[in-house]
Amino acid sequence: MTSQLLEINQQYCLIDCGEGTQYQLLNLKAKTAKIDYIFISHMHGDHIFGLPGLLSSMSLLGRTKELYLIAPAELRDVLIAINRTSQASYNFPINFIETQDAYATQVLENEYFSVTSVPLEHRVACCGFIFREKKKKNKLLAEKLPKGFPFELMKELKEGKNVDWEEKEYLVEDYTAEPTAPLSYAFCSDTAYSENILEHINGVDMLYHEATFVESDIERAVKTRHSTASQAATIASKANVKKLVIGHFSIRYKELNQLLEEAQSVFPETFLAIEGKIFTV
Amino acid sequence: MTSQLLEINQQYCLIDCGEGTQYQLLNLKAKTAKIDYIFISHMHGDHIFGLPGLLSSMSLLGRTKELYLIAPAELRDVLIAINRTSQASYNFPINFIETQDAYATQVLENEYFSVTSVPLEHRVACCGFIFREKKKKNKLLAEKLPKGFPFELMKELKEGKNVDWEEKEYLVEDYTAEPTAPLSYAFCSDTAYSENILEHINGVDMLYHEATFVESDIERAVKTRHSTASQAATIASKANVKKLVIGHFSIRYKELNQLLEEAQSVFPETFLAIEGKIFTV
């Protein structure tokens, strides 16, 4: 089952929602109430069967805050069919943003980050998602400021404005430091090997790319429109990403090291997406 | 979440299928391949959200054997919507038997047992299910038979026919014992207190009846069309059942003993339906 929880400056995005996601979030002590954005790559059950339950639970637990649901249009049909038959509805508004798989397009933008959907190549319409932090504000060097320095002026300094206080000028360059570079994360699953995504994911700090099979099972990968570990690593290498996380492994492999080693032989900075594991981009 | 696995003479019935049921079956080492009958009481998510995933997994794991799905007609709409959008289908036939909540009716009968659906009183159409074993064959007293006694004749004795072998007559009354009495199990959830079910469940060996609330929260029970522990026990008592299992407890109760004690004060032979617990009828 696929599901990832992505935190960007205390904004929480859930990416895909396989069955049992809500229980696993509970086990990992992640608060579902904090999730404001849910991204769904495609309509296969291992990516969506946890969503009806998660949405119901959010509603039962008292959510009233709007939720952004970025997903294939067909998902709406399924949710409507479920709610109609159970005579249920959610106690919070859903802002439904339809993805489409004809071309890459920005699907979300807020104060902290923007998200672009990118068509992948799978058996059904499927999109990857690229999350990009916006340029951050300067870091305030608070320890250099005198006691009692007004909070409002601190904000202005962070925003890059020189300020005057008690007959002294405080320059941005003296009292702030450059912010850390904005980070980027790309989620690409499920997909066959596709160089079409390279231009979109080029240089991202972290790429999650599915690696369902090992290279010796490439016929299965081609037939089912999935990738091998070696193909995932090739994409990572060609796209000049900084780190690669592979996942969505076929249950046929009891030993995941073969997938890791295969990918690392092409792209050394590869890691396995293991249940419950936390990565810092 | 509600789900129960009922075994009757190595026939496996799943009753309701909340999210995560397939994983819990896996944890409990119950083989989903052996399940030939799935009963769904009603369309609320805590009783059905595990079904799409279970059916997909059955198909992926190679099932070709027919599955009986005894459920509200609306469930078909949901499964069709899901399969259409995911462009998936099951590799096994589903024999869909629609329940209806206007009156009690037999929904299934096979060699070993029959099942009657009984209308319950909930916020949406909802049925309970009563499982009755058929009269079993006589028990063969094999130790009394001579060596080499033909297997075919053993079968006839079990079926209640006297047989001749090597110039001797073998009487049913000498070589078989009466079978154990056929057992019965009633599943009644979700439902408000309803004496309409009494005639149908009268005398069953085991009754599962929901007990969402304690009696002091009876207003909530009435409003949400659920039962209190005391009401479940009253039904058990009035229906002269042998044992009562209560479940479907509201998450508001951290301590389930209060529900058990409340029910036992009315009907002593009450037990709690706890995750993973196995009862013998």
Commentary on this structure:
Chain A is an alpha/beta fold. The first copy, chain A, folds into 3 domains: 99 residues, Metallo-beta-lactamase, Chain A; 39 residues, no CATH class; 101 residues, 4-Layer Sandwich (Metallo-beta-lactamase, Chain A). Chain A contains 10 helices and 16 strands. In chain A, the strands form 4 sheets. Chain A has a 7-stranded mixed β-sheet with strand order 6-7-8-13-14-15-16, with helices on one face. A 5-stranded mixed β-sheet of chain A has the order 1-2-3-4-5. In chain A, helix 9 packs parallel to helix 10. Chain A is globular and about 75 Å long. The two termini of chain A are 22 Å apart. At the A-B interface, helix 2, helix 3 and helix 4 of A face helix 2, helix 3 and helix 4 of B.
Instruction: Summarize model confidence as the mean pLDDT of chain A.
Output: 95
Number of helical regions of chain A: 10
N-to-C terminal Cα separation of chain A, in Å? 22 Å
Query: Might you state the CATH topology name of the largest domain in chain A?
Result: Metallo-beta-lactamase, Chain A
Q: How is the largest sheet of chain A built, in terms of strand order?
A: 6-7-8-13-14-15-16
Shape of chain A: globular
CATH class of the largest domain in chain A: Alpha Beta
The percent range for strand residues of chain A is 25-35%
Assembly state of the chains shown: homodimer
Structural class of chain A: alpha/beta
CATH architecture of the largest domain in chain A: 4-Layer Sandwich
H/E series of chain A: EEHEHHEHEEEEEHEEHEEHEHHEHE
